[in-house]
């Protein structure tokens, strides 16, 4: 009788062990399958990213940067035109690499910004630091994939401007602020003073955007259109809304180059979209 009970106990334990082992294998298989599924759920493996992408980016010293990028399986080609500045088509070719998660490509050997987030039928350009562009200008930094039936033609025509450019010395001029970080600036109806910036030929600047008088020094390198502002000093008046003032002060400490044609002035960071835009005050 004891042998019978012992035999039944061994059989029961064996069945339990087999069940547990089978369950563990099944769970392991499910986990492995999920991991494989997740690893494949990215642009590199899931999207039809090969093709031609076209669009235009904001430009610091021209009307727009017309851009076409052709992505092949292992290489890319890129063409850009600085519209309103030159009709020359700048071309480059090379290899590209994917990031670890398979959603961003880097055009190897290309001048920054050279990273693009790959979406469905779209490329989103990153900024010079390799970060996704946010805010009001985000939608302006994308290239759309075009169908093979669409005509791939870059606009190589330069518009001829007949208006004579006024001869203005930037070192002795006054400018009305019209845009800040892509947002149109409207004059405060309760204040007769213009929102803007003035430059003196002694290397000083002064700013007014609604509340305090701000000032500081600036340094120009006209041969390369570079500009550098000192940290902004300000009077200490308290006003209801000082956000514009703070934003403008931050922009002045960020910009490193400029573009002006005697009638308009743009302050820029690298070759990205203008951070501040002005028109001449006569």
TrEMBL record:
| Pfam families per UniProt | META, NlpE
Q: Which domain of life is it from?
A: Bacteria
Coiled coil ranges (UniProt) are none
Q: Which residues form the DUF306 domain?
A: 169-279
**What is this protein's name?**
META domain-containing protein
Q: What organism is this sequence from?
A: Flavobacterium luminosum
């Amino acid at each position: 009788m004891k042998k019978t009970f012992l035999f039944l106990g061994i059989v029961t334990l064996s069945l339990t062990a087999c069940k547990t082992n089978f369950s563990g294998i099944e769970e392991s298989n499910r986990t492995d399958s999920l991991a494989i599924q997740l690893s494949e759920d990215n642009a590199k493996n899931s999207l039809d990213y090969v093709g031609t992408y076209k669009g235009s980016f904001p430009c610091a010293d021209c009307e727009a940067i017309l851009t076409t990028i052709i992505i092949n399986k292992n290489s890319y080609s890129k063409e850009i035109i600085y519209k309103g500045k030159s009709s020359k088509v700048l071309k480059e070719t090379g290899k590209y690499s994917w990031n670890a998660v398979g959603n961003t490509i880097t055009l190897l050997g290309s001048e920054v910004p050279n990273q693009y987030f790959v979406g469905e039928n779209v490329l989103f350009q990153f900024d010079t630091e390799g970060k996704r562009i946010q805010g009001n200008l985000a939608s302006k930094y994308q290239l759309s994939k075009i169908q093979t039936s669409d005509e791939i033609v870059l606009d190589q025509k330069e518009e001829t401007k007949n208006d004579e450019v006024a001869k203005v010395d930037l070192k002795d001029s006054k400018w009305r602020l019209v845009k800040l970080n892509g947002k149109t600036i409207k004059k405060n109806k309760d204040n007769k003073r213009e929102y803007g910036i003035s430059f003196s030929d002694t290397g000083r600047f002064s700013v007014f955007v609604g509340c305090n008088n701000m000032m500081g020094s600036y340094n120009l390198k006209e041969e390369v259109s570079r500009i550098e502002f000192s940290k902004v000093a300000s009077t200490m008046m308290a006003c209801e809304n000082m956000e514009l003032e703070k934003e403008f002060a931050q922009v002045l400490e960020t910009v490193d180059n400029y573009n002006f044609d005697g009638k308009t002035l743009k302050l820029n960071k690298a070759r990205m979209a203008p951070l501040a835009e002005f028109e001449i005050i006569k």
